[in-house]
Structure to design on (272 residues):
């Protein structure tokens, strides 16, 4: 069902890889709600994924950009404003990668060169994006920028590895840069802490099925799906949330506020 919440709004969506991606679902929902946008991803991700299909579905232009490179971001933003005929109303940052996770390195034995690479892609890219949008004066007043995070930024999930640190850094950037963006340009910056979601990136985490099953049993409403996250993102892009900023917003079925659920107690209790 469409409510035309984003009619007339224009934006940039980072990180759609395939139909399992939260960014992909968000792009489809933005299109349904009347928004226009440019799709972008790193050149290597474009080769791996199926973004051309999404581009056709949503009638959106693809502009390749490596979000860790300022020159790429500057070109992306300038070209996007030309394609969209004006300033930007919304941006989704859905980018994350850990070489240490991919290579199976334990947190107590990290390769720190790989750590820096993952930190740059997953977190520092968000600062680079915000800084470039800020300097280019690319955002309309009351526009909205959203990045995707995960509960491991606050709690220990052993196999989430250095991605937990990256997400904590990402959330801090949203608050710190969001203050200046709000104060000086009336732009909102928030993060969504999403349930574990079976995306291509998520499935790369060791024991990910265990993450999902545990969270499902801990969450009163069950895990939020990629589509649930897309719908939440739509509300943050809309004018209905004009004064929501600097927030890390949980979209997790209640997981973040549950100490232990009856399902978990029943699972670990000895048989009587």
């Amino acid at each position: 069902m469409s409510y035309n919440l984003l009619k007339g709004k224009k934006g940039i969506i980072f990180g759609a890889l395939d139909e399992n991606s939260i960014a992909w679902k968000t792009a489809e929902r933005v299109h349904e709600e009347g928004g226009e946008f440019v799709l972008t991803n790193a050149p290597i991700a474009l080769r791996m994924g199926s973004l051309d299909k999404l581009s056709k579905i949503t009638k959106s232009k693809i502009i390749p950009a490596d979000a860790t490179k300022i020159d790429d971001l500057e070109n992306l933003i300038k070209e996007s404003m030309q394609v969209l005929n004006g300033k930007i109303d919304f941006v989704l940052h859905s980018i994350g990668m850990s070489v240490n996770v991919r290579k199976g390195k334990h947190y107590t034995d990290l390769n720190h060169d790989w750590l820096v690479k993952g930190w740059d892609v997953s977190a520092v890219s968000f600062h680079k994006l915000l800084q470039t949008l800020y300097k280019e004066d690319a955002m309309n007043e009351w526009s909205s920028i959203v990045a995707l995070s995960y509960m491991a930024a606050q709690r220990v999930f052993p196999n989430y590895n250095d991605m937990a640190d990256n997400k904590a850094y990402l959330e801090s950037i949203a608050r710190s840069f969001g203050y200046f963006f709000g104060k000086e340009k009336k732009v909102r910056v928030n993060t969504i802490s999403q349930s574990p979601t079976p995306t291509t990136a998520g499935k790369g985490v060791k024991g990910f099925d265990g993450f999902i099953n545990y969270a499902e049993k801990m969450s009163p409403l069950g895990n939020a799906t990629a589509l649930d996250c897309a719908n939440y993102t739509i509300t943050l892009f809309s004018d209905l949330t004009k004064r929501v900023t600097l927030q890390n917003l949980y979209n997790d079925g209640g997981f973040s506020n549950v100490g232990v659920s009856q399902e978990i107690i029943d699972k670990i209790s000895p048989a009587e």
Notes: The chain has one domain: 10-268. The chain has a mean pLDDT of 95.
